[in-house]
Amino acid sequence: MVEDTQILSPTIGWSILAILSVLWLYLGYFWGKKSKNLEGHMLAGRNVGMALGTATLMATWVTSNTTMLAPQFVLEMGVWGMLAYSTAAIGLIAFAPLATRIRKLIPKGFTSGDFIYHRYGKTTWKVFLFISLFYGIIWLISMAMAGGILMQTIAGIPYVIGTTVIIAVCVGYTLMGGLYAVIGTDYIQSLLILIGVVVVGIGIYKILDFDMTYNYLEENKPMLLSVLFPAALMSIFNNLLFSVGEVFHSNVWWSRTFALRGNVGKKAFLLSGLGWLPIPIAAGYIALSSNSLGLNIDSPDMVGPLVATHVLGEVGSIIVFIVLFCSLASSIDAVLASTADLITQDIYKKSFRPQATEQQLKRFSIIIMVAIGLLAWIISIPRVGTLASVLFFAGPMVGSTIWPIITGLFWEKANAKGALLAMLLGSTLGLVSYFTLGWYTSSLVGALVSMVVTIYFTKRSKEKFNWSVLQKLNS
């Protein structure tokens, strides 16, 4: 259960929720007018420029995880937790050269599944699809949960209603405008997020007594200040590899790569990663003060918003509400669109309707998007676990895809057997680690196992892949 500790009155909370919901739905309808064909709906016409591209990448990466899990990391793991979550910037930065390589190899690609299918074959593709779809649903569930927790904690809006509204609004405007609507709303959301984070950060810096906070922690919880906190040190590498796996495998980022103009992908990913980097540090920093303030933290994933609203009062609560709503919407819409594209292109078209027209594919994508939203809503209502425990359950699986993706893009001797076993063994042993050692080890184990297996089979292979196969894809 979420404890009712709201600072905003329900009237103000409902008003903000209504205004943001109507705004995003209208913008979805407005930008949806540009979506004339399948490429427009799925990839925004493959013509997204630097400003919109950078904004949509950064806004998508500023999820509930950034604004709510980063403080949770700090609350549970101290100063190293702050650094641990900031390593997620490496995911976007490291993908920059891959974006250039992807556009060069597959100029007409639609999904990450396109690459896996033609690079490694059908069996490996099936395993990859399972991982991608499982991760997409887990990500949606974590953000739907965050929406419900946020609205009830800050404004007293019931958890179920908050979860329902955030999913319904995102499904609504994404249906109407496709990737055009996603990218357009992301641009506005990224501006609101950055402004809100700066305002909250300055306000807290001026009000909080950080000397008092440090002295309290040194006396009562010295481990949170220790540089030798084993779990925290492990979480640094685990979160880094989890974020790299998230970006490298997920169709969210592949669809952005195909949507961006060919010459801006590398710069857009670099800039978005660097622009995102200070946000989790700022979000996590305030969590250290929660104990000295005497706050009752009912749910560790709400420590950041609770501290901000407690210190800054009603004005701060309004800003936090808007920032978190925007961060949630900017990620939920991206996962909805990219997951629907993956199912439409890789399952429906490849396996059931290879001769389907663009209009039939677009119609099916819309149906699937509604179904995905409904599934995430149903699963998120019981609210099982914290955001970290829910999200990192997919960690070993996404970690296991890193090396098959990297070697498949650059090494001609990378092969299906190595990629398949890397994903299977990495996922399995990573999940064992999740349940026996803790969620902060699972991505690390999955990625390391995957690396050893992939490199072993690549070095032993005598086959060489014909890159021209990818060049002809969808042309």
From TrEMBL:
One Pfam entry name: SSF
Keyword Transport: yes
Keyword Transport: yes
Gene3D superfamilies reported in the protein's UniProt record: Sodium/glucose cotransporter
Main location: membrane
Any GO molecular function: urea transmembrane transporter activity
GO cellular component, one term: membrane
Annotated compartments: Membrane
Membrane topology according to the record: Multi-pass membrane protein
Segments crossing the lipid bilayer: 12-31, 43-62, 82-100, 127-151, 157-183, 190-208, 228-248, 268-288, 318-343, 364-381, 387-411, 418-435, 441-458
UniProt keyword terms in alphabetical order: Membrane, Transmembrane, Transmembrane helix, Transport
Family the UniProt entry places it in: Belongs to the sodium:solute symporter (SSF) (TC 2.A.21) family.
Protein's name according to its UniProt entry: Urea transporter
Organism per entry: Candidatus Sphingobacterium stercoripullorum
